[in-house]
Amino acid sequence: MKINVHNPLVILAPFYIAAAVILFMPLGHSTASTFSPFDSYIHTILFGTLGLVTFLTYSEKIRITAWSLVIFAAYSEIIQSFIPTRTTDVRDLFNDCIGIIIALLVFSLINQNFTKEAPKPVTRKKKTIKKKKSRPKVS
């Protein structure tokens, strides 16, 4: 069986599966009363990575891709409300969006540097010396 690496789903699937496992995995303890300071970093890094990989894969459709990621972030928070040891938190959604914005900025810098035209080499104009036409001498 040959895997088509040109298919965007082949590239994106491992990242989204890993994100789903991280986001929806039940925790061993209840997080309803405590807030981990690292939780915001995890959300920002997770959605920053998802955003960057997705932007690089679908570089022509940036607006749709960005909104799709925001919808995925909101959806993940809603799903977490149904998992007993998880909670829905607006701060998590905010940090997800910060990660998406950072990914968009990084993608813009990468895209800008790679699509910039190479500088044209400086060429000197050759001076052409006009030869005077010699007139036949009249005697």
Q: What is the element string, with H for helices and E for strands?
A: HHHH
Quickly give the structural class.
mainly alpha
**How confident is the prediction overall: mean pLDDT?**
77
Specify the biggest β-sheet: none
In percent, how helical is the residue content?
55-70%
Shape: rod-shaped
N-to-C span: 94 Å
User: What Rg, in angstroms, do the CA atoms define?
Assistant: 28 Å
> How many beta strands in the DSSP annotation?
0
Number of domains: 1
Q: Bin the strand percentage.
A: under 5%
The parts where pLDDT drops under 50 for at least 5 residues are: none
Query: What count of helical segments does DSSP give?
Result: 4
